[in-house]
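Z., the sequence and structure:
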Amino acid sequence: MGLKKIFVLSVIVGVISGFGALIFYILLDVSSNFFMGLAGLDMPKAGGEPQIFNFGVKSVVPIYVITMLGGLMSGLIVYVFAPEAEGHGTDAVIRSFHHFRGIVRGRVPIVKKIASAITIGSGGSGGREGPIAQIGAGFGSFLATILKLTDKERRILLTCGVSGGIGSIFRSPLGGAIFGVEVLYKRDYEVEAIIPAFISSIVAYVTFTQVVKILTGFEITSVFVVPNVKVSVFEIPLYALLGVLCGLFAILYVKVFYGVHYLFKRLRIPNHLKPAIGGFLTGLIGLFLPSALGMGYGFVQELIDGNLPLSVIILTVLGKIVATSFSIGSGGSGGVFGPSVVIGSFVGGALGYFISQHYPIQPEAFVLVGMSSFIAGACKTPIAGILMTAEMTGGYNLLPALMLSSAISYLLTRDYTIYSEQVSTRIESPAHRKEMLIDVLEEIPVRKAMSSNVITVHPESTVKDVMDLIEKTGHIGYPVVEDDRLVGIVTFTDVEKVSPEERGKRKVKEIMTPNPIVTYPDEDLKTVLEKMVLRDVGRLPVIENGKLIGIITKGDIVRAYARERRV
């Protein structure tokens, strides 16, 4: 795409992603207010999260009934209208990018938006990044399709949609942009989408915050309100320890989540009933541990403010892991990044508040570092995790601690990831397989792939002689050489045009192709392959100083590529 085209389309995707995030935010606010009111629960909100609606609904319906009802409603909506919207939406976007040309069905974002608002609003443990990622990605894909853009351009706009949605709803334009290009891989980035993602994310962020300000008068800054925190050099070993703890709990989170997910997959009951069972089990946990319900950002704020006892903090770590596994692993609709934010915060809070009982430290700093570290380990997005934590909390003073702890957690978790559709690097992505093939071929010279033992024929040889060679060797093309100089090439196709009765009389020089296309020993295989495709030939003679020194076929190119990949 040209620069102007990139800019314009990225801005459009950013505006729509910002409005999509706002609509989802409102739906979730309405749903949470209504369902938690029915359950008689007054759930805290994060300090930077405005409450747009307050219905004043109060009842005493047991929370496990509410979560079960929410799961049932979500299951019916998803499995009737868009089964691919079940579970956590970010994985579906990653799968679409790698395997389905970046195509997202138009109805998926709408279904995901409604189902997720119900699941999370009714107390299901899930995050809003999955739904908003699918909403933004869905519009980016739709825009690319109606404009008849290439698959590569569609994938870039899909990434822009993810970045715009995440950047706006988390109020993290830089972190959201990096998340979109980082979450696709375990150890790589979608480099070509970085600048479009920056544009889309900042436009979506401005759209979201300004419209919220117009509607509520609320000046949105960061998600959480955090006191001024600093890093002491004496605390560095403690932050390293926190990185280890977050890495271990991230592995536990992945194992429990997918263990529950596969257990529900094996249940022989209608799919739409599974989220209801998951919701019921989540409600039982919430009956004793409300901090495990919903998104949980309000409880992270309570943790930062020091309003939770250590016993509740420790129990929330385990309760949130299990509740998320039941809510989303059963097929309920929501994200798994949001619970990662909560779990990591509580792991950090548990360590910080425990140490603060014995030494004078700032436990809220450990909350923020735990948040970033857990995201790095569980989601394989260390850079995005660091940036998003800093932007969501304003904790820029903690960057050294964030970086150290996140790096340790990321390295410790190795290939464990909550996003099962991630691939390790670009070279393993079907989206890039063709261009990676070209990149490899550009590095291989012809002399490394050609065959030096060349069977040639003389222009005075008969056509029958060539036919005998074909039957003897199995080769279907031969260079024609006279006085060590290449004068032409003759193939089985040329021979076939001569009747059997004439083959003993006709000479090779009469049927050969003179002045054939050639290649050279230092030419790269990409150029050779392009020559073969453009001229519709299967082999090229290799010439050096005017003399024939070899021949290269498409089979030789394939074998050279395979050898290079094995190295």
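The two ends are 34 Å apart (CA to CA). The chain has a mean pLDDT of 89.

Let me know what you think.
H.
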